[in-house]
Design brief:
With about 220 residues, this protein is α+β, with helices and mostly antiparallel strands. The protein has a single domain, classed as Glutaredoxin (3-Layer(aba) Sandwich), CATH 3.40.30. The protein is about 45% helix and about 15% strand. A 4-stranded mixed β-sheet has the order 4-3-5-6. A two-stranded antiparallel sheet has the order 1-2.
């Protein structure tokens, strides 16, 4: 698990239903803990403060049109108003459902993580997005993106060749399936009281803003 230093595992999280945003069903303690593990295992490093009161978990596929749309239209305001101000921390989980290039791109981001640049590489992938299964995430292009974010090319290449993080990518995919997810992006918001709210799809900023404000007041 790579949630970062200082993260308190919210295994005793309460569950909550919100008809407009989706829900996590009521569960007994054992099932509840298992469901929470599906959210917090096989993740990226934290974006934001380890001590932020709200955790946002995104399940995404780098080839996904709507994930790319979210990245460009909604995520910047979340980063500016909530992540950079210490109110929300974000992690990314791979739900690679479109094709092999999705798997390769996800693995490449974890290889970049070895050099402390997961989020820079994550951004490079979305900034170079060019459709689904069009070849933009080819092996050659993934190496080019590594150069763009100033990774050590030899280390990155060895990581890719050795498939060092394929178990993380496959584990995250399995987590998503076990949570019943069927598309990307999907989000889970863990509030300060450890309740969990699911947001389905690339919703506009106002949906996240309203939820964050509500949870910070409660």
């Amino acid at each position: 698990m790579v949630f970062g230093h200082g993260f308190q595992n919210p295994l005793t999280a309460n569950t909550q239903q919100d008809a407009s945003l989706g829900k996590i069903p009521s569960q007994n303690d054992t099932t509840q803990k298992a469901a929470m593990n599906l959210l917090i295992d096989n993740t990226s490093p934290i974006l934001g403060s380890d001590n932020a009161p709200i955790t946002m978990i995104e399940f995404g596929d780098y080839q996904c049109f709507y994930c790319n749309q979210f990245y460009h239209t909604t995520e910047p305001d979340i980063v500016k108003n909530y992540i950079n101000t210490g109110k929300v921390r974000m992690v990314f989980k791979d739900f690679v459902i479109i094709g092999q290039d999705s798997v390769n791109a996800a693995h490449a981001a974890h290889c970049a993580q070895e050099q402390g640049k997961f989020w820079e590489y994550h951004d490079a992938l979305y900034n170079n997005w060019n459709g689904e299964n069009t070849g933009w995430a080819s092996s050659a292009n993934l190496r080019a993106f590594a150069k763009d974010v100033e990774l050590n090319a030899t280390q990155f290449g060895q990581c890719m060749t050795q498939s060092r993080y394929i178990s993380t990518v496959q584990g995250s995919l399995s987590d998503a399936k076990n949570l019943g997810l069927t598309g990307t992006p999907d989000f889970f918001i863990i509030a300060p009281d450890r309740s969990v709210t699911k947001i389905v799809g690339a919703q506009p900023y106002d949906v996240f803003d309203g939820l964050f404000k509500s949870k910070l007041k409660s």
